[in-house]
Amino acid sequence: MVPNAPSDVRLVSCNARVVQLEWKHVSSDVSDDNVTSSAALQFIIEYNTSFQPDTWQVSHVTASRCQSVVSLAVHVVQTVDL
Q1: Helical H runs in the chain?
Q2: How far is Cα 76 from Cα 58, in angstroms, rounded to an integer?
Q3: Is residue 39 part of a domain?
Q4: Which side of the chain, N or C, has fewer Cβ within a 10 Å radius?
């Protein structure tokens, strides 16, 4: 059985470094004591950035959570010669 997709997915906030998403978890469908879909165990968020538009990142979120904060920041290490 295929789990239900989340509902009411919405963008809470977005800036140059962080995106926050929220959604409602849809539980299993039961009809006449027959389960027609299974419960989701996790949600997968796939995203890319303008720094690497051809590279998709993956974030896994447990199904009990109904929000995710995705960091878009690129970590830059700068060295200075003294």
Answers
A1: none
A2: 20
A3: yes
A4: C
